[in-house]
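User: quick one
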Amino acid sequence: MRTLEEVLATLEIAKLKEEDLNPTIQCLSFGENVSSADYCLMELDDTLCKHIEAGDSLVIRGDKDERAVLCSRDKTYDLKIADTSNLLLFVPGCKTPDQLTGGQDRPHVEHAQIWGFCNSHWELRKQRPKLKKLKKLLMENPYEGPLLGGQEEVTENRYTMQDLLERIQASEEEIKDHLEIIHACQIDGFWRVLDFDYEMKLLGHVTQLVDSESWSFNKVPLRTSLEELAPLEPREMIEHCLSCYGKRFTENDEVFYALNEDKVCRALALMLLQNAVKFNLKEFQEVWQQSVPEGMSTRLDQLKGVSLVDRTSNPETISLLQVEDLPEDTLERFNHLFTLREKWTEEDITPYIQDLCGEKQSTGALLTKYARSSMQNGAKVFNSRRPVVT
Amino acid sequence: MTSPADASGGKRWCLDPEAASLFADRMVQVFIRGGVDGGVDDGPPEWLMVELQGEMVSRRNAGLAGNVMGDLLYTKEGVSVLIVGHHILYGKLVKLEKPFAVLTKHPGHSQDGGADDVAQVAMETDRHEPASTSYSVSALIKRKLIFKTRPKPIITNVPKKV
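Assistant: Done. Structure below.
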């Protein structure tokens, strides 16, 4: 340890005048157990800083094939290590000028210990969570309805929320939101996604009942629905179907569901489109309108992100193209889209790139970055920046 | 698990090599506790960080532990002065644009009887694997003293003018 005299002597040689200096001299030394192995530095944004100050925990999630992400309760961040050529020392007891006001006038030495040091830190970047894996996992064993006589329960590939948290690189809130979007439900403690045909069967029961009872689809009574349909399907499944396709409300102590026209029409369109590669657009629109419940109107814009209309062919056609089936990586997504179709209008491509947008990023910005624009027949079209095989 | 050089700015993707072994055969979650051990405070304490250019090498190559690093002073105008060996460096106090959390690693133990109420994830598998590594937030760093100037040698034995 240096003595005050030694320090003052050095100051004199360095031509630093005592009267210009704050009298506290802090002698910094390395603690006995100092090393760089025990501490990590993690860069924070304001939100995370507040989380930590509130005592909330964070979680790192990942597996050996994917990179690691950091999750708060409701957000996901990419985790990277950034090296710096500088040395970063942690000195818990070190005081700053504002903390050294008042006190002694005479020069004196205080001691502060360096507890650790780093030359790298974890850098976080908020990112859209990778949730495609969620549906993929649940589709390993979709729920097809109650078991028929003689059938055995498939107990493999069933996931609880805990299991999902260990496999999906997303925060719990983001996972829960997505489970709702894919119409998953909990059966025996496991999260299950419904087999598409079974889901359509349930929806068919509901819409047929609404028709036969001449109810308004904005006011479907829960109790009666359950009573009428109980012989056909489990009550939980009927209620789940109503929740997926409608909004629950209470009136005079009775529970009703207001069916969502867009969701119902979209589901029925999917059912039709699955049966062939391409449809004659006009024929499709006729059949589609006829298949939806009385009082509901079909519109092509209900199918954004779910189907693609080809107006350049004669006759015009429509085919199934669901954004959830496309690659999750931005570059791969664009390559795939340009492989399907060489040139896209902004209107057609937007539903298929909307989910790629980062925070405060617009689809326009994505197009500028990943596509090249040109004019075709007086309209702006986008094509790939590099050659793709169509 | 190797870290391939990332295309953007030479940054590495994954966690440190020790952490990589966490993901060896089973996907895991590594928890980072927010609160301080047994703390009643609101949040972790704030530490000061000192940033120096270049590496710190002990004179006798005996390692750093226990050794004096240097003396820190402030001028009345708020300039920071650091005397390291025969060199003097000037720096300033800056507020970090993005604060840092200082995380302390807690390596996994099999039967850790710690008083921690949360933290360690006990992975229940058929093979009774030990609890996985976890981290806790020891402190927040919101300000740093940065010394960017080239260290100036303090020349001794300057003959005094008569």
